[in-house]
Write a structure and sequence with these properties.
205 residues, mainly alpha, 77% helix, elongated
C-alpha cells in the first residue's frame, strides 16, 4: 500500500521507473494535504477567546476536513490500482472473434473505471475550497497563509486529477460517456480556478 510508506519512501517510489504512484495518486495526495491544512487552521482557531463566535463552525470544519483528508488518502491507492483491470484485459486471449469482442469490452470497461477514479478525486478535492475559504476568512489570522495554501493544493488536486480523466477518455469509444465526462471536466476546471481566485483575493498580508 502506497499510503503506508513514509514520506521519503513515497517520494522515491514516485521518482522510480515504477508506473505507480503516478499523477492521479499525486493529485489525491495534494488534495489530502490541502484538506489537512484547512483542518489545521480550524484547530488553531478552536479554543481561542478571540474566535469564540466561530468556535462551532471551526469544530465542524475540523470534522469535514478530516473526512475529506481520509477519503483523499484512500484515493491515492485507489488511483494506483485503477488501471489494473485494463492491464488484465489487454492480456486476455484474442484468437477468435468472440475472444476479441470480449477483450475489447473488458478494456473499455476498465478504461471507464480508470477515468472515473480521478474524477472522484477531482470532485472530492473541490470540496476543499469551501473549507479553505472559511479558514482564510474566519480562521486564526496567524495561519491565514495556511488556509490559502489549502486552496492552492485543492486547486492542484482538481486540475491534476482532471488531466488523468482526460487522457483516459481518449481511449473510450462510448461517445455519451466521453461527452458527459468532458462536460464535468470543463465545469470543474472553471469552477475550481474561480474559487481559488476568490479565496486568494481575500488574503491580505
Amino acid at each position: 500500500m502506497l499510503i503506508d510508506q513514509n514520506v521519503k519512501q513515497f517520494v522515491e517510489t514516485t521518482a522510480s521507473n515504477e508506473p505507480v504512484p503516478g499523477g492521479g495518486s499525486i493529485a489525491a495526495l495534494s488534495g489530502a494535504l490541502g484538506a489537512a491544512l484547512a483542518g489545521m487552521v480550524a484547530n488553531l482557531t478552536v479554543g481561542k477567546k478571540k474566535y469564540v463566535e466561530v468556535e462551532d463552525e471551526m469544530k465542524k470544519l475540523v470534522e469535514d476536513a478530516t473526512k475529506l483528508q481520509e477519503k483523499l488518502v484512500n484515493l491515492i491507492d485507489k488511483d494506483a490500482a485503477s488501471f489494473d483491470d485494463v492491464m488484465k484485459a489487454f492480456k486476455m486471449p484474442k484468437e477468435t472473434d468472440e475472444e476479441k469482442a470480449a477483450r475489447t469490452a473488458e478494456i473499455q470497461k476498465g478504461m471507464k473505471y480508470a477515468a472515473s477514479v480521478p474524477m472522484e478525486t477531482a470532485e472530492t478535492a473541490f470540496e476543499i475550497m469551501a473549507l479553505a475559504e472559511a479558514a482564510v476568512v474566519r480562521g486564526n489570522t496567524n495561519a491565514v497563509t495556511d488556509g490559502a495554501i489549502a486552496a492552492m493544493m485543492g486547486r492542484n488536486a482538481v486540475l491534476g486529477a482532471l488531466l488523468n480523466v482526460r487522457i483516459n477518455l481518449g481511449s473510450i469509444k462510448d461517445e455519451d460517456f466521453v461527452a458527459e465526462m468532458t462536460k464535468k471536466c470543463e465545469d470543474l476546471e472553471a469552477s475550481v480556478q474561480k474559487r481559488e481566485t476568490e479565496i486568494l483575493d481575500q488574503v491580505s498580508l
